[in-house]
Write a structure and sequence with these properties.
Blueprint lengths: L1 H15 L15 H14 L13 H18 L5 H18 L4 E3 L1 H6 L3 H8 L7 E3 L13 E2 L9 E2 L1 H18 L4
Parallel strand pairs: 1-2
Antiparallel strand pairs: 3-4
Helix pairs in contact: 1-7, 2-3, 3-4, 4-7
Length: about 180
């Protein structure tokens, strides 16, 4: 949901800078369908509103595949500068996920502060949840894990990573650039 905040911020800044939503197609992004397919894969293996995935098989390889699809899209669109920030964030996330067996380490403190007490409790009890596992001295690259958070009283509250911040900046910047008519 935090990515929706980046979209909203991008649209608001774009409008403040006298951009138009109708200019967004001027970006001419190649192979955008790869991003949509990657997001679909993630929803199938890490459902948003259920405990059980719709596709309960090959979770880790499909998780890597979802990022791979997005990275191919990013390489195909290197000429679009905002995608460099987005790509850097995705690469950081892939690195920490790969270093931790296909899951993102998350701080129980950050999750609880963001209002996800039940998820934090599951992780502390030794379980995984969706694509996250409990951040500890046993997990790798914790600095790149989900330890940042928006408190529960803030809309779109969640725990997130440094990579996510770069992705959010890239998404907002891309929307502003597109609204201003920059191809």
């Amino acid at each position: 949901m935090i990515f929706l905040a980046a979209v909203i911020l991008g649209v608001l800044v774009g409008l403040l800078l006298k951009g138009k939503l109708s200019n967004l197609p001027s970006l001419r992004l190649r192979w955008l369908w790869l991003v949509l397919l990657g997001l679909l894969l993630q929803v199938l293996i890490f459902p948003l509103f259920s405990e059980r995935p719709l596709l309960p098989y090959a979770t880790v390889p499909l998780h890597y595949l979802s990022y791979g699809l997005v990275l191919v899209f990013l390489v195909a669109n290197l000429r679009v500068r905002p995608l460099l920030a987005l790509g850097a964030g995705a690469l950081l996330n892939v690195c920490v996920i790969a270093a931790n067996g296909g899951r993102m380490p998350a701080s129980a403190t950050a999750l609880a502060a963001a209002g996800y007490v039940d998820v934090a409790e599951k992780l502390v009890a030794g379980s995984t949840h969706g694509n996250v596992l409990l951040m500890s001295e046993l997990t790798r690259l914790n600095l790149l894990g989900d330890w940042l958070y928006l408190p529960s009283w803030v809309p779109f509250s969640t725990a997130f990573s440094i990579g996510d911040v770069l992705i959010l900046i890239g998404v907002a910047w891309l929307i502003v650039r597109g609204m201003r008519g920059h191809a």
